[in-house]
Amino acid sequence: MIRARRRGLPWPLLAFGFAVAFPAAYGGNTAIMSVATQCLIYAVAAASLNLLMGYGGQVSLGHAGFLAAGAYTAAVVAIHFRLPLVPEILAAGLVAAAIGFVLGLPTGRLHGLYLVILTLGFGVAVPQIALNWTGLTNGWAGLAMPPTTLWGLDLTSQPTLYYCVLAVSWLCLLAMLSLVATRSGRIFMAVRDSEAAAMAMGVNVWRAKVKVFTTSAFFCGIAGDLLAHWTGLVAPTSFPFDLSLLFFSMVIVGGMGSIWGSLTGAVLLVVIADQAASVGGLSTAIIGGAVVLTLLVAPEGLASLPRVVSWRLRRMLEREAPGEIGRFRNRDQRVRKERRA
Amino acid sequence: MLELAGVSLSFVGLTAVAGLDLRVADGTICSLIGPNGAGKTSVLNLISRFYTPQTGQVRFNERDLLKLPPHRVVEIGIARSFQSPTLFKNLSVLDNLLVGAAHLSKPSVVEDVLRLPRSRQHERLARERADHALEFLKLEAVRDRVAGDLPYGHQKLVDIGRALVADPRLLLLDEPAAGMEEAQKQWLANAIMHVPDEYGAAVLLVDHDMGVVLRVSDNVIVMNFGSKIFEGPPGEVRHQPQVLAAYLGTERGGTVHDAQA
Ligand SMILES: Nc1ncnc2c1ncn2[C@@H]1O[C@H](COP(=O)(O)OP(=O)(O)O)[C@@H](O)[C@H]1O
Ligand SMILES: [Mg+2]
Question: Cα separations (Å) of A81 from A76, A84, B179?
Fold first, then answer.
């Protein structure tokens, strides 16, 4: 949950370089390119959920619903209006955002468990609506994405799709990073940490909560658009409750309140799920295990590991932290040790 | 500037504030003192609209405060600190202070994502004000520390700094010196004395520490059981028998200074 100024290696830049160079090694292998594309799409979805949970202090167990909204919008827009890719992506984001706005309205009064139930119900309802609204969604059979081109490139082929998804997803991650480093993001976090203090500083708490829901849904809708291009088919069965749970797990494993952590969590869990896919139920078990392990070993997620490790190392090297405040902490620990002895 | 007239506040079966009249003039420091449970914090909560009085009026620069929701109070120029520091505990000290500037301009989410001019302007202004508050309260060394990890005294300072960043005309402070060592208290009293010049804000100070109160105040109001029992300049307070009685619970002689000891 901590936003410390990073020193050391520019990890995001290295990761981007790696992602750009990746197809040079595996570009010919469509199976691997497909998983890599999935990692990026799920990273946007997980990061959008993180915006809501880690930064906004809200909960959602129904984010697959926003993903579905975005994916269906993409398919409908592509089939009926033949919009170019960029307006189509924005449309997917905006439709999901509109739904997120409505879903966010009751957050002024709903807290904790009630919000879990509300979002859970939403996530479960969306595939049902898609199943029954056959005029728009073609029901059970789903909608096939028409072949899309961008600047004459065929988006259904790899690694073209991968690069397109890489560009969009990276822009989304950077947008979310920009958001959390400015006033809007600080207000989300302020409301998360203390509603009373936020209110005293002029924050309309309810509006901030609705805003974080809307923004989160917007980015998840964009992930849904990318997903539609990746799968080529948008059907009710593509958005089960498990998917919402998977995004939730990615946020926990990667670290609440860390956008890059969500990318890490998404890559890790997508790869695990892919590797374990041949054995039924195994991937679910491993992912569940990963969540439990994270909560036990590094409750703040993978993103916190470098900081935690360096802190431990420093404590081993220095007997007493410098400065008045450091002494405070050590004194407390000494007292605790003496008591135990 | 600030004016409370006949304000009463009761909780179920308990009167916290009973018919209180209170005025704070522009650019002055007014202290509100009284024993625990006298209703001091309740008065601040009334002014910041966390509580609504059953009777009475609260006006600020001729505006009816009671018509405003709590989040609009800072917009008209009243910022506060809390008795137990209520920080954004996972944010850095700097970020806590920056939130103080949240109401000064309001770029939208889209403007913030794209860092459009209004967003950059806000960040620049917020940073300037935060840097000034860091310097004013000598918090530079802990600027990047996580606020929730700081010792109590530092958290109280950050709480005050956040309110100062909000550019108030009236600053409400709830026991800022509580839990501080004597030297720190003296330093803080000095800082509070400079708030009117440095920030152009009047101060309504609630504190227990008589040394601090008598040193910084232009006007002192003593409360007990929700009512005002004395009001006057600091020089007169310590000799008032009813004040001593309230503090000591007896009619024993002496001054308020003894009561503190
Ligand atoms: N939210 C509340 N609900 C019920 N009683 C309260 C509440 N806030 C304050 N009180 C009561 O009002 C009285 C005055 O409290 P307070 O204003 O905190 O006093 P002080 O700050 O002078 O110590 C106390 O008896 C306290 O228990
Ligand atoms: Mg109090």
Answer: 8, 9, 67
